[in-house]
Amino acid sequence: MPDPNPTPESDFLRLFIKHEQALRGYARVMLPTWESVDEVMQESSVVMWRKLSQLNAADQFLPWAKMILRFEALRLRRDHARDRHVFGDAVIELLANEAAEVDDDFWEREREALRGCLAQMPVHHRELVLAPYAGEGRVTRLAEETGRTINSLYKLLGRLREKLAQCVQNKIAASLPS
User: Fold this and answer.
1) Which of 12, 73, 84 is closest to 37 using CA atoms?
2) pTM exceeding 0.85
């Protein structure tokens, strides 16, 4: 049921929730870890809230939010500039520009394809594919639990990721109109 008395704050919340997955995907293109994505999403949402009066129309929310997100990602990157594993500003800017050009429907199709491909995997393979995202040491614990070496699990993980990427590409291609 629509809100009978919408406020700018309730409108903002609806728009933010509607576009949160697209914003997370956009942030992940620029940032090296999901933890940094979480941090930038949190800081960006605060900035968006403060600058809400600058948003002119609901259909401009996503580009406006992406611009704020980009600046917050660059700020975080500068804060972590000492880490040699972080891309330079020029690379981040290039990735952000390319990601901004991708249709948001594509990201949703990709997520749906990924969900479908993961669901088709045997449980133990799916668990291994998701292990690096489940926290520090999860692959090591899987190696201990299965009696395999960490190196063999990482080799298997590489092969599974290749199969998963191919599956996602095939599903996306099959979903596009001919």
Assistant:
1) 73
2) no
Residue 3's φ and ψ, nearest 5 degrees, are -70, 120
Can you tell me the distance from the alpha carbon of 74 to that of 47, in angstroms, rounded to the nearest whole number? 14
- For residue 98, the surrounding DSSP H or E stretch is helix 89-101
Contact 165, 107 (CB under 8 A): no
Domains for the chain: give ranges and CATH numbers: 8-101 (1.10.1740), 106-175 (1.10.10)
Say whether 161 sits in a helix, a strand or coil. helix
Report how many helices (DSSP H) and strands (DSSP E) the chain contains, helices first: 8, 0
What integer pLDDT is reported at residue 67 of this predicted model?
92
Residue type, position 99, single letter: A
Distance CA 26, CA 12 (A): 19
Structure tokens at 105: 């429907």
Closest C-alpha to 33, from 134, 151, 165, 154: 134
Residue 71, token pair as written in the block: 């600046």
Spell out the residues 6+ positions from residue 132 whose beta carbon is closer than 8 angstroms to its own.
138, 139, 157
CB atoms within 10 A of CB 16: 17
Q: Which two tokens stand for residue 85?
A: 């594993």
pLDDT block averages, 10 residues each, the chain of length 178: 69 90 87 86 93 88 92 83 62 74 75 91 90 79 88 89 92 81
